[in-house]
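Duplicate of earlier report; Anthranilate phosphoribosyltransferase input re-posted below.
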Amino acid sequence: MTDALTTLAAGRPLDEATWQSFWDDLLADRLAADVLLGVLDAINTAGVHRDDQGHQQTMINLALTLRARNPVPAHSYAGTVNVVGVGGGPSTFNISTAAAFVAAALGVRVVKTGSRAYSSRYGSIDLLDRLGIRLTKSHQDTAAAVERHGIAFAGPFVYPRELTVLARRIMPVPLRNYGRILNFIGPFLPRLHGASQLTGLASPTQLPVATAVAAAIDDQDIWFSTNAVGADELISTADNALHHHGGRTIKIARATPGSGDSFAGLAPVDDPTRLVDHFLEVVSGLGGEDATHTVSLNAAALMIIGGLESYWPAAVDAARAVIQEGVVRELVESMRAGTPVRPSAESGRDGSPALSEARI
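Output:
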């Protein structure tokens, strides 16, 4: 039995040294599968809703030790924004990917991380595969994609290889069995030095652990979105909030009345052959009012976090405009074709950020 498993079994927090030893032993193939599964079971059972300091410290050290094993990129991501969710909420179409495209069409420099589906029907990578949009393979490749299109979808290289080794060593047990905890910690692992990030949480009860982890990461500015309906994105038919890891909270009132079902207009397609067409309809403003406004809310948040707007209604209006004017669809199609289209700020028109006097 490894020190990590012994410590977790005793209900004590894991310090950085013990986590580092665990990862060293993993790479050296010194840990049996039952030990690895025991550690995963322990942290998965503890979950992401506990707010005691010991559990928070275990999660902080888990994230920091995995980040430390990722090489620090020579490239700075200052001025870029990432949007990613922890999963676990109701099944919807891929709102965060749509919002990333809308934000890029508004002039926000976006570097999006993501994964294949865990709780949703299709994850961002599943969607991008079907769209024919490739993931980047290195930090240099990512920088080039941002320069070319204003947006990049980072590939697996941004995650520590320990996760791949872990998945291989516990086979035939699938790593997705532990998706709840790994999807929660995953957004904190890419080394996007200088980037801002909006991380969607599936419940406000995840905030204590999430903000504790974010506060320990000293080279990124991290925000979180929550709502009362359990979605890991801002939802137009619900009351929402944005939370900064430093303690600031912005409340966002329900924007559209909806049909009584907060997710009626946000459901994923049942037919996989409709996945691409449905996504293109959404980014063209043809997916229904709830879909358009929900995507606009999330894109507006990225615009504000990225510093291109400071007035919430103006950001939402700008997002709706680039959707309805076809700017977002043009950007998506340009990436599918591999041709450069770099929209500017303010609906892609003049290249200058639109900073309003009134603030959120």
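Residues 345-360 have pLDDT under 50 and may be disordered.

Merging into the original ticket.
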